[in-house]
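Mods, move this if it's the wrong board.
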Amino acid sequence: MSARKLLLFRVAGRVFALEAGVVREVLPAARPTRIPGAPPAVRGLVNVRGTLVAVLDVGLAVGARAEPADGPLVLVELPPRLLGLAVDEVLDLVAVEDAALDDRSSLPGVRPGLVQAVGSAGGEAFVQLATDALLAPLLP
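Not the wrong board. Structure tokens:
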């Protein structure tokens, strides 16, 4: 059996996950500079050690809330880009057996195209997000 490492985080009272392999680091909350004309889920740009990083609010992107997050930023690296995800709270890094994940494409309150799988770890049910679909508003 194979397992995948996932970073668990909370957004609008729900637990979500991303493949740990794309996560570069977690930073404290930062106030992005708004980009005129950007979709509402794109919060703006932050400066990370001299590099401008676009920030996507996960709660707004998945349709789980109407107000922006004010928690930490999860930096994800999708070469050649570095992108930030605004979340409410980072929970844990876990290993989950592939067999323990269910490939559902529709869950109440989450845009269907963003769901890669659902599962549970440590008694917490989570939704694994499809990274490419989630980051589509930030990628050309």
